[in-house]
Amino acid sequence: MRKNEDTLLIGKIIGVHGMKGYLKVYSFDESMDLFHPGAQVRLKSSIGEISRLTVRDVQPYKNILRIAFEEVPDRTVAETLAGAELLIQRSQLPEPEQGTWYWCDLVGMSVYGIDGTYLGQVENLFETGSNDVLVVKRGDEEILIPVTASIVCDVDMDYGKINVDLPEGLM
After folding, report:
1. Does pLDDT of 125 surpass 90?
2. For residue 83, how many other CB atoms are within 10 A of its CB?
3. Does the pTM of the predicted model rise above 0.85?
């Protein structure tokens, strides 16, 4: 059985913007849903200290977010937070839609071919624009498996197992 972590990494502070305490945040979430005004997040400083922050304002900018927090009044305070990580409680996430999963739940799962052959464990995922890709490792071998309905046959969260039907030549 898989055990889910209680706290999930959702972003990293990569710099500051302006004089009013806005932080440049690289979000690990595709949408801004987790960073809406009023949202509570945890900040893990570079030395491991944890504190709570409340989102005051969020502005998308290119591939980052500019976020103002109630507890960060100005640039001086903001500069001390560069490099910190932003976390949330897993319970703050909405339930994924049927047939979709959070990447963090797939990492570490065992992957098997439809004939029962063990292919390895999911080490990571990345997106290509058209679909996500599982990075599956077994020893020194690495297989990149597109996450499509025709290839991923079953994801069993209870047993931490993914069954795939790999097309010829993908292995």
Report:
1. no
2. 12
3. no
